[in-house]
Design goal:
The protein is mainly α and about 130 residues long. The chain has five helices and no strands.
Length: about 130
């Protein structure tokens, strides 16, 4: 009969500490893409438009999840779908429409996430 050795508590703690340190390093180096960076990526890369489309979908989904988490923690809701559809294919149009609607508000060094959150709040307001 084979027995599995009991893990040493110190090796488990070392592994956990190393994993936590790695997560902190990765999280601290992540930066939001600015409007300028996104425009540059779209124009200069061969598949730049495809990259930015996927990026916008991720930003939209992340914004919705962060909003949901904040509401669960007690914040008031500012984005309400109310049964209306919101699909990944809508991300680019939401972003572009918000930039056009408020062109004088946004500067090139502002994060794309800000534009997307504002777009979602405008199109899906809580009444």
């Amino acid at each position: 009969m084979r027995t599995t050795p009991t893990p040493n508590i110190f090796s488990t703690l070392r592994y956990s500490a190393a994993l936590l340190a790695l997560c902190l390093v990765v999280a601290s180096t992540a930066q939001a893409m600015t409007i300028r960076e996104m425009r540059t990526l779209e124009k200069t890369e061969k598949q730049g438009s495809t990259y930015t489309d996927y990026y916008l979908v991720g930003v939209m989904e992340g914004a919705l999840e962060a909003h949901s988490q904040a509401v669960r923690a007690g914040a008031s809701a500012s984005i309400c779908l109310n049964g209306r559809r919101l699909e990944p294919s809508m991300a680019k149009n939401l972003y572009a429409t918000e930039l056009k609607r408020n062109a004088d508000l946004y500067e090139a060094d502002m994060p794309v996430q800000l534009v997307m959150v504002n777009a979602l709040g405008t199109v899906y307001p809580c009444l």
